[in-house]
What we know:
- By secondary structure, the protein is mainly alpha-helical.
- The chain has eleven helices and three strands; from the N terminus they run E-E-E-H-H-H-H-H-H-H-H-H-H-H.
- The chain has a domain at about 105-210: CATH 1.10.230.10.
- It has helices at about 25-30, 35-45, 50-60, 70-80, 85-95, 105-115, 120-135, 150-160, 170-185, 190-200, 210-230, and strands spanning about 10-15, 15-20, 25.
- A three-stranded antiparallel β-sheet has the order 1-2-3.
- Coenzyme A binds near residues 99, 139, 191 and 192.
Amino acid sequence: MADDKWHSAITSIKKGEIAIRGYDVTKLMGNRSFAETIYLVLKGELPNEAEAKMFEAILTSSVDHGVTPPSVLGARTVASGGNPLNAAIAGGVLTIGDSHGGAIEQCAKFLQDWAKKSGEVDELAKELVHEFVAGKKRLPGYGHRLHDVDPRTVRLFDLAKELNFSGRHIELAKAVQEKFTEIKGKSLPINVDGGIAAVISDMGFDWRLGKGFFIISRVPGLVAHVYEEITRERPMRKLGNTNWEYDGPELREL
Ligand SMILES: CC(C)(COP(=O)(O)OP(=O)(O)OC[C@H]1O[C@@H](n2cnc3c(N)ncnc32)[C@H](O)[C@@H]1OP(=O)(O)O)[C@@H](O)C(=O)NCCC(=O)NCCS
């Protein structure tokens, strides 16, 4: 007889028992970190120590980047119009696209597509950059409005090396940056989207999860911004991305 049920392998629920990917949620609570549990829910298995550290760093990298990104302006604008936190966060998430956060997906896709081809990484990178340039397309994961070198990418790549995740995808991402400079005579940093894309690809994540990484990482920052907007600002104020000033703590040692 045909099975007319649809299936999900994520969480089993019974009266009084919730198991995520087979692990009792109450055992995860207090024993595994939030990041480890996110890894579990996405990948199906708990991370080992190195995977957990790398994954944690990825999620931390994009928690917030100040008031100017589209997602923060979007979320604050929705809140400023007199809407509740959930609507404001949804508004912020809707701004995530090819130019903001969404580049992780596109970048991971091209890295995964090209890294599986045979041949030297340098040659592949050259071919790839020529293809993008000829198509007049921007390289997703490269370039930044502010940073000449994105410090988050540097840290992610350093950690990837230290934790033995550095593989063909990171190598290709770096080679693409070099070839773009050679071919176009212009230097573009690998931004945090590109950095995350390369590392998650070397960690074996499917590129289709790319935007998910950014959303998971950025929503806590958006919650903080919306809360600040609601509690500190007047409704429907003149909300611009230049007429602002940071007044939080000075840089402090960790
Ligand atoms: C993020 C981004 C919008 C920042 O752009 P910016 O520094 O303000 O630069 P501009 O949009 O003014 O572009 C300046 C020049 O650099 C080029 N450029 C910028 N990023 C490029 C990229 N990723 N690939 C190819 N060329 C790029 C532009 O085509 C433009 O060239 P031109 O002067 O010949 O017209 C841009 O780099 C981009 O679109 N990157 C791809 C998407 C991405 O990775 N987003 C995640 C950001 S964290």
